[in-house]
């Protein structure tokens, strides 16, 4: 069912759940990362492990979300939406998915290049990415990865801001039902 013909077409419950859980985890990770950047390196080891643990869990949830998205069609957009707007929505969705995959992957590569252990929530060891000894010996990857990971986080934050601004625009200025497609349902009457 297309938006504009009665109730809006909605994402399925699994997509809605994954969207909001991952959104909260990503915001937590960005906040924790910003905090960790402003405290002495010798203090945050428990915070680094928490950041790595939540990052790995988030990455796994994102893999589930991508697989789910590839096997479950998104609800239709409004009939009157311009082709350029449709392309912008699809492009933004693709960019957000890429960042959600690449950001935790660069974090994993970063700690692997530094041979730093990953212990998920202090309970389970997570394997490091196997790297050639020549890469480990040169130290170049370990030197550049923190900057790459940090830079990607800032760019991702910018795209998240654009995504939120677009949602607010549709909700409060355009007053269409685009945002309703991903909002959790409240009450039995909806």
From TrEMBL:
Pfam families reported in the protein's UniProt record: Ni_hydr_CYTB
Compartment(s) of residence: Cell membrane
Keyword Lyase: no
Keywords: Cell membrane, Electron transport, Heme, Iron, Membrane, Metal-binding, Transmembrane, Transmembrane helix, Transport
Domain of life: Bacteria
Cofactor(s) demanded: heme b
Membrane topology note: Multi-pass membrane protein
Protein's GO biological process: respiratory electron transport chain
Keyword Coiled coil assigned: no
Sequence ranges assigned to domain Cytochrome b561 bacterial/Ni-hydrogenase in this UniProt record: 10-184
GO molecular function, one term: metal ion binding
Primary location recorded for the protein, binned into one broad class: membrane
One GO CC annotation: plasma membrane
Transmembrane segments: 12-34, 54-71, 95-128, 148-169
Family: Belongs to the cytochrome b561 family.
Protein name, entry field: Cytochrome b561 bacterial/Ni-hydrogenase domain-containing protein
């Amino acid at each position: 069912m297309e938006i504009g013909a009665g109730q809006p077409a909605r994402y399925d419950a699994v997509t809605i759940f994954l969207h909001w859980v991952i959104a909260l985890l990503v915001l937590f990770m960005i906040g924790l990362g910003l905090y960790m950047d402003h405290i002495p390196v010798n203090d945050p080891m428990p915070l680094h492990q928490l950041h790595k643990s939540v990052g790995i869990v988030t990455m796994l949830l994102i893999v589930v979300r991508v697989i789910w998205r590839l096997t479950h069609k998104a609800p239709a957009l409004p009939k009157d939406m311009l082709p350029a707007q449709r392309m912008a929505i699809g492009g933004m969705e693709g960019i957000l998915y890429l960042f959600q995959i690449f950001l935790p992957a660069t974090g994993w590569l970063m700690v692997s290049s530094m041979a730093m252990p990953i212990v998920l929530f202090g309970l389970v060891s997570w394997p490091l990415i196997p790297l050639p000894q020549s890469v480990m010996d040169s130290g170049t990857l370990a030197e550049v990865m923190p900057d790459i990971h940090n830079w990607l986080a800032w760019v991702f934050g910018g795209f998240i801001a654009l995504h939120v601004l677009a949602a607010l625009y549709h909700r409060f200025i355009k007053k269409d039902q685009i945002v309703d497609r991903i909002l959790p349902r409240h009450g039995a009457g909806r």
